[in-house]
Amino acid sequence: MCSVFDVSDHAGMERFLDTYGIRGAGDMIYGRRRRPTQQVSIVTTRKGTPEIENAIWHLYLERHGDTWRPHKKYWSINSNWKKLNSRPEYRKSRCLIPATAWVESQGGKNPVEFSYGEPFFFCGLYKVWEKLLSCSIITLDSHPATRRYHEKSLPMIAPNRPDFVESWLNCAGGTEDFSSFLKPSIEYSGKILTAHPLLRAISTEYIGDPIPVIE
Question: Which of 71, 133, 171, 209 has the highest Cβ tally under 10 A?
């Protein structure tokens, strides 16, 4: 379960977005330890071309007076891959969520910060609530190499391929072509995933050195 992630502004994020022709990099929300129900930046093609929009990190909202807030009955920061085929958002409103790292732990203990040392995209879903957007991160089964850090799941990370990014954001077609990507993988653009032990899950204080995560 991904419940904390980073979007650092010093890791070439603007260059990364430009590689995929994504507009609106100036509207990016940066910050370390982004947490559920906060505003985060996502990439959609709602207006025809890939661009940055901002969304509440909690897919299901409910009306509260004149505004919307995270739904109390449905904790929806993540979307489990096994339920994707029953969700219209998987067919009609897929998004990408720029990030540079994420944090996992076993039952809140022994947290680590995972990273590849460069920007990447989480694969996600989004919904529209009048003028607001909301989103969730898709989670897959855990990977054998990461189970010691989090035994239940691993976030779905988009491969560093323009054809995948284009297809994922193009919600006019089906989802059959994504089946092979719904399997946990720690490979990303030839980079080695590292796990950096943390003092606490939401802290930025490290304990020890980064550990390469090897299959």
Answer: 133
pLDDT in tens, 105-142: 988 889 999 999 999 999 999 999 999 999 999 999 99
- Fold that domain 5-212 belongs to in CATH: hypothetical protein yedk fold (3.90.1680)
Overall pTM surpassing 0.70 (yes/no):
yes
- Residue 183 sits at the vertex; the CA angle it makes with 180 and 186, to the nearest 5 degrees, is 115
